[in-house]
Amino acid sequence: MIAAISMISMGLMVAARVTSEELAGGLLNMVTWPMMMLSGVWFSLEAATGWIQNIAAIFPLTHMLSAARAVMLDGAGVAEIMPQISTLLTMSAVFLAFGAFTFRWHPR
């Protein structure tokens, strides 16, 4: 649920300043595709270079997948995935704050 909130808040941050649904959809696709490529959805990033892993860490999907894999494959509990949970909560707060700060009902 925390991961879903983080993903939704990221979408709200991206869509906060646009004036049309089409532009919001395009911008969200520009964020979503690199996020899926670099988060480890389709292939593991364990063999990737350090800078690619660092870029992947800015996306909430990376932390969500890391926590989900730890729970499903390793039997991790809440204590073991607390770093991912805290990162997702921090990202959610930052994304929501930025989206709320930049939101405008009418374009200037």
Describe the secondary structure blueprint for this structure.
Elements: H1 2-15, H2 21-39, H3 50-56, H4 60-74, H5 82-102
Helix pairs in contact: 1-5, 2-4, 4-5
What does this structure look like?
- This protein has one domain.
- The protein is built from 5 helices and no strands.
- The protein has helices at 2-15, 21-39, 50-56, 60-74, 82-102.
Average per-residue pLDDT, rounded, comes to 89
Could you tell me the number of beta strands?
A: 0
**How many individual helices?**
5
Q: Which class do the helix and strand fractions yield?
A: mainly alpha
Overall radius of gyration:
15 Å
SSE order: HHHHH
Shape: globular
* Unreliably modeled segments: none
Report the β-strand fraction as a percent range: under 5%
Number of domains: 1
Indicate the percent of residues in helices.
Answer: over 70%
Largest sheet: none
Give the CA-CA distance, first to last residue.
35 Å
